[in-house]
Structure formats: C-alpha cells, structure tokens
Amino acid sequence: MDHSLTHGIGQVLPLAVALALSPLPIIAMVLLLISPRGRTSGPAFLLGRLLGISAVLGVVIAGSELLYSLSNSVELPTIVRVILGAALIVLGLTKWRPKPEGHVPALPGWMSSVSEARPARAFGLGILMTVVNVKEFAFLVTAGVVLASDDLDLTATVLAGVALLVVGTLSVSVPLVAYIVAPDRMRPRLNALQGWLTTNMSLIMGVVLLVIGAVVLGNALL
Predict the structure, then answer these.
(1) Least confident segment among 51-65, 113-127, 198-212
(2) Lowest-pLDDT range, 98-112, 113-127, 144-158, 190-204?
(3) Could you give the C-alpha distances from 193 to 25, 106, 187, 189, in angstroms and in order?
(4) What is the DSSP letter of 34?
(5) Residue in 153, 158, 132 with CA at minimum distance from that of residue 52
(6) CB-based contact 125:27 (threshold 8 Å)
(7) What letter does residue 111 receive in the DSSP assignment?
(8) Residue 203 and residue 197: Cα distance in Å, rounded?
(9) What's residue 96's pLDDT?
C-alpha cells in the first residue's frame, strides 16, 4: 500500500473513531430501531448520515486546498491544525463542568419525536445530526484540513475519506445490522444502551474531545 495513503488513513483514523463515539447519532438510531418503522427508518438514517459526512468532508477538503493554494505561507496548514486541536481541547474541557447533585441528563427536546420518524424524516435527521452538531462538525473540519494538508493525490484522498466514512459510521451501522438479523434479542440491549449513553453523554464527549484534540495538536507540532 502506498505510504502516503497509509499516512493519510492514520491521520484521520482517530477522528473517525471520535465520530463513531458521538452519542447522539447512536441514541437516535436506537430510538428509530425500537420504533414500529425501525426496519425502514433505520437504514434511511444511516444513508442520511453517510451523505452528511461525505458532503461536509468534501466541502472542507476542497475549501482547504483552495486556501492553501492561494496562500504563500507553508506554515498555514500547521497553524490551522494547531488552532483546531486547541479548539477541540477547549470544547472537551467545557464538558467537564460540575453538574448539580442528582442531575439526570436530558436529551434535546426534538429527540423525543425521533421514534415516530418516517424514513424521509429519518434520512433528513441523519444529515442534520452531522451538519449542525458542533462537535461532529469540528471533527470533520479537522479531518478535511488534515487530508488537504497531507499532499495526497486524488485516489489516496478518496480512499482515506472512505475509511473515515466506514469507521465513523460503525456505531450506527452495526446496531442496524444486528437488529435486522435478531430484532427480539437486540431490543432490550438497545434500550439499555440508550439509557447508558444518555446518562454518560457529557463524560463520553468530554473524553473524546480532549483525546482527539491532543492527538491533532501533537501531530501538528511534530
């Protein structure tokens, strides 16, 4: 395998894992799967998520390459990556704010109606949950900037992007496949997963943002 391709995949793999660990899309998929329309709305949500990630990543890569080509500064890619890494760390720290004793995390109000979503709405939710989620958007912007600044050819950029897409959506694609294969066995497990993710959402995102921010910052400074 070409060295530049393996380097590109290695650079975006931590960001793909961060995308996969984002709790809200997983919770949304669980709510859809345990609904009466789970077998149709679940795949529609996954398709929307794939499209949303691909669109944001493609736009960021194209914009970053244009910016780098117009700039005379060879240090610009490094500066951008340092800023993004620091921003992810700051976002992670905000998740560690003390919570009142006995505080029970609540899902956003709009999530309460997710289980009623028809396939068309589930598809739209898959796109929106990627585009308007600040933390996920930050991961994708960072991945796009990294790929644009690594001097990869078109084939290597596309393959690295596909690797990010596959890994980044495993947390919603695996439950979907498992539910389609064994719905009765998966239903109680999905309910338990939803409860655990809801309770620990801030902790999960805080850890993920801090770790990924440190990785991005460290790679930029090497």
Answers:
(1) 198-212
(2) 98-112
(3) 12, 15, 10, 6
(4) T
(5) 132
(6) no
(7) G
(8) 10
(9) 66
Three-state SS at 21:
coil
112 pLDDT exceeds 80?
A: no
- Residue percentage of the chain with pLDDT more than 70: 88
Q: In Å, what is the CA distance from 139 to each residue of 5, 53, 57, 58, 142?
A: 20, 10, 10, 13, 5
CA angle 82, 160, 135 (to 5 degrees): 45
Residue 221 pLDDT class (50, 70, 90 cuts): confident
The reported pLDDT for the residue numbered 1 is 54
Distance CA 146, CA 12 (A): 7
Q: Check residue 51 and give its pLDDT.
A: 95
Element (H, E) at 115: none
Q: Which residues contact 147 (CB under 8 A, 6 or more apart)?
A: 8, 11, 12, 57, 61, 157, 160, 161
For 141, other C-beta atoms within 10 Å of its C-beta total: 21
User: Residue 176 has which token pair?
Assistant: 């979907």
Output 164-167 pairs: Cβ under 8 A, ≥24 positions apart.
164/12, 164/13, 164/15, 164/16, 164/19, 164/53, 164/57, 165/16, 165/50, 165/53, 165/54, 165/57, 166/16, 167/13, 167/16, 167/17, 167/19, 167/20
